[in-house]
């Protein structure tokens, strides 16, 4: 898989995580639907300007676009878990600290309840 395909896959993943269609991403970014489609398939060489528009439309930090593009993660035994953790990071990254704390508290309580039941 080449770099264009990896970037396109990450854009698609974040877009879907955000509940956006390609049409909505195109509208939000000011780019055409066909351009977004080509980028996601890795058949279009994306410019930095267009990449910036897509990142802004997705509402993520630029680094988040590249966090998941790591062959080590894809080939490790925990790749699926790592992908889920990265999905959570993406979901929580734009939230207020109080919201993140609340989700963290809920997760801890949930996992502690499961741990107590399995003992």
TrEMBL record:
Keyword set includes Disulfide bond: no
Entry keyword set: DNA-binding
SMART domains in the cross-refs: HTH_XRE
Domain called HTH cro/C1-type: residue spans: 11-65
Pfam families found in the cross-reference section: HTH_3
PANTHER family linked to this entry: HTH-TYPE TRANSCRIPTIONAL REGULATOR, METHYLPHOSPHONATE SYNTHASE
Designated name of the protein: Helix-turn-helix domain-containing protein
Organism: Paenibacillus residui
């Amino acid at each position: 898989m080449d770099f264009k395909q990896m970037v396109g896959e990450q854009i698609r993943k974040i877009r879907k995580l955000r509940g956006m269609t390609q049409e909505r991403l195109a509208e939000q970014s000011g780019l055409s639907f066909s351009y977004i489609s080509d980028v996601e398939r890795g058949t279009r060489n994306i410019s930095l300007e267009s990449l910036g528009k897509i990142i802004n439309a997705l509402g993520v930090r630029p680094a988040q676009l590249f966090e998941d593009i790591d062959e080590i993660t894809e080939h490790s035994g925990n790749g699926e878990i790592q992908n889920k953790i990265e999905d959570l990071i993406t979901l929580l990254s734009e939230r207020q600290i109080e919201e993140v704390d609340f989700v963290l508290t809920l997760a801890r309580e949930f996992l502690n309840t499961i741990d107590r039941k399995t003992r």
